[in-house]
Design brief:
heterodimer, A: mainly beta, six-stranded mixed sheet, five-stranded antiparallel sheet, about 55% strand, B: mainly beta, seven-stranded mixed sheet, 11 strands, about 50% strand
Chain lengths: ~110, ~110
Amino acid sequence: GEDVEQSLFLSVREGDSSVINCTYTDSSSTYLYWYKQEPGAGLQLLTYIFSNMDMKQDQRLTVLLNKKDKHLSLRIADTQTGDSAIYFCARAGNNRKLIWGLGTSLAVNP
Amino acid sequence: EAQVTQNPRYLITVTGKKLTVTCSQNMNHEYMSWYRQDPGLGLRQIYYSMNVEVTDKGDVPEGYKVSRKEKRNFPLILESPSPNQTSLYFCASTPGPEVKTQYFGPGTRLLVL
């Protein structure tokens, strides 16, 4: 399978919480990332977590890392229509390369 | 403002006509790289550069060249573009040894006819 895997689609109602999941195979990564890509736009770094952390919170965003299961999640509280985008999970590989998931397309329904 | 810029943002060209996509960063970053993004394949690294005059192949380097003559610029060169190089290209830069953050350019959408 792919090194970094994500489900391709997620649909939520406005105001609900969104949880986007990611699994990876290489446990040696030091950093794991969440990027956001809005339609027709570039990649925006949302947040990152160091591998010795379990959780990181930044306003509406909560990142959970389960190193044992190699599972990373991004929770968006009070999801808004402006959160509709593709969310990419990535891990730091060798030579500062980022290894990417294929992205989860989040649709927020009013 | 700290940023990575790419030019052009959109380009339509024909097979075999050499083109260059420029990338420039104003943050004095050592590390720069190029990715291409394709539906169903995600982002794949083309080339990267650890510093001036130091470049190396990424995962999909075929058909591309790069140069790093100065720290701020990292152009991507397609000597003889082919339709399979139609893609969305991103340039990125990173400050130091640890990839704490990677700054991305806005992307260049290339269509090769």
